[in-house]
Specification:
- This protein is an alpha+beta fold and 433 residues long.
- It has a domain of 122 residues: Glucose Permease (Domain IIA).
- The protein is 59% helix and 17% strand.
- The protein is built from 6 helices and 14 strands.
- The strands form 3 sheets. Strands 3, 6, 7, 8, 9, 10, 11, 12, 13 and 14 form a 10-stranded antiparallel sheet that branches. Strands 1-2 form a two-stranded antiparallel ribbon. Strands 4-5 form a two-stranded antiparallel ribbon.
- 17% of the residues are buried.
Length: 433
């Protein structure tokens, strides 16, 4: 092999001269080829590792920016849904008020109709009484006339005088005129009452039509609100389920911690009254309010669970969760620049802030729902034990303290003391934020 490559790499000798003697080192062609190949491989490996490091840094920065944009989009969409919910609720309240006014008007009209019917019956009864009175008066008048004629005959001792035909016609005409006037007045009152009844009936039909339109508008509003609540709830359910958390337990815990009420105005979200429990619209409104309340509980729970990344500057994901060299690596390692700020990933209370075996300078935060997070190998700690922190608060700086081969952050998520993969929570949040 030396002979084959001697034409390209001739043998060389390095002379080493001292005060007393001169020595030389022979570099055969094969030795030179091996040295050149090793140097080329070292340079190539350095270029490849640098390229991978820069590509990871660029990719992680782009992923964080994308997550931030998606979170802003979600927050704006939630704000729009909240505004639309408030507007729909105002429209529903206005429709209910209009419906109540229409019901009151219909009730008043029905009362007027009943009163008119009662007056009509009274008039009919009065006419019958007048007719009976007139008949009785005519009978009494005829009897009085007969008695007067008999008394006159008895007084004069002669035959009873005969009434003239003209007198009888005059009496009959007066009676007919009296009855005609009474019947005309009664007919006028009857026609007036019939006209009022027709007008009231037409107004009642208009109110019933307006009521039907209001019910259709209410149904459309309720349908839109129900769809909005369902669509907004699905990604939140998926986020918590993907993180291994029971949504119902989370809601119950948040509700116990946020259940304060009081004041002179009563509860902000009253239940459905007993008289409205059979009303389908009231039941739908109650279900929508329950869905909106559940979304608000989800928002609070999301703030209290570690659905965030503790490093916001450029970093490289260097080690994942799982077995490493036969031992459990209980978190993930994120390598970045020395002194890079470290942020809390959820609301909580600091329970450890100082050195800990293997972790170096460590911050541990206890969150709700049995969750806790650890931030190891810090160069500086900026919180104290017992301090309450919120998501995004700065708690320290990246370093290489403890059992570490270089500057990085060791980040852990634990549930009831058991370590869980932090990437599960980070990936679950990507469904919503």
């Amino acid at each position: 092999m030396n002979t084959a490559i001697e034409g390209y790499l001739p043998e060389r000798r390095l002379f080493l001269k001292s005060d007393t003697e001169t020595r030389f080192v022979r570099l055969r062609p094969l030795t030179q080829a091996l040295l050149l190949s090793g140097g080329a491989m070292l340079i190539g490996w350095t270029i490849i590792v640098s390229a991978i490091f820069f590509m990871d840094s660029i990719g992680s920065g782009g992923a964080r920016e994308q997550a931030q944009r998606e979170r802003e989009i979600f927050e704006s969409r939630l704000a729009m849904l909240t505004a639309d919910r408030d507007r729909r609720l105002d429209e529903a309240k206005a429709a209910e008020e209009r419906f109540a006014v229409a019901l009151r008007q219909v009730s008043a009209i029905q009362s007027e109709l009943m009163a008119s019917e009662e007056r009509r019956r009274e008039l009919e009864t009065g006419i019958e009484v007048i007719q009976k009175t007139l008949k009785r008066a005519m009978v009494e008048r005829d009897a009085a006339r007969d008695e007067l004629e008999a008394m006159t005959v008895a007084a004069v001792g002669g035959a009873a005088p005969q009434r003239s035909e003209a007198a009888e016609k005059a009496d009959l005409s007066m009676t007919v005129d009296f009855l005609t006037a009474a019947l005309d007045a009664t007919a006028g009152e009857r026609d007036a009452m019939a006209g009022a009844a027709d007008a009231a009936r037409a107004e009642t039909e208009d109110l019933i039509y307006e009521q039907r339109l209001a019910e259709e508008r209410n149904d459309e509003i309720f349908s839109q609100l129900e769809e909005a609540v369902t669509i907004s709830m699905a990604p939140l359910d998926k986020m918590f389920t993907s993180a291994g958390l029971d949504p119902d337990d989370l809601i119950a815990t948040v509700r116990r911690g946020y259940s304060g009420q009081g004041g002179t105005l009563g509860p902000l979200m009253p239940g459905v009254p007993a008289e409205g429990r059979s009303d389908p619209n009231a039941q739908r409104a109650a279900r929508i309010l329950e869905g909106l309340d559940r979304m608000n509980m989800y928002r609070i729970a999301a703030e209290k669970a570690p659905f965030a990344i503790p490093v916001k500057t450029a970093f490289r994901f260097t080690s994942g969760f799982g077995r490493r060299w036969g031992r459990l690596h209980a978190g993930v390692d994120l390598a970045g620049s020395y002194g890079a700020p470290i942020y809390a990933t959820a609301d909580g209370v600091v329970v450890k802030a100082g050195p800990m075996s293997g972790y170096g300078q460590l911050v541990e935060i206890r969150h709700d729902f049995g969750l806790s997070t650890r931030y190891g190998h810090l160069s500086r700690i900026e919180v104290r034990v017992g301090q309450r922190v919120s998501r995004g608060d700065r708690i320290g700086a990246m370093g290489s303290s403890g059992n570490s081969t270089g500057t990085h952050l060791h980040y852990e998520v634990r549930v009831d003391g058991e370590p869980k993969n932090p990437m599960t929570y980070i990936k679950a949040a990507s469904n919503v934020f």
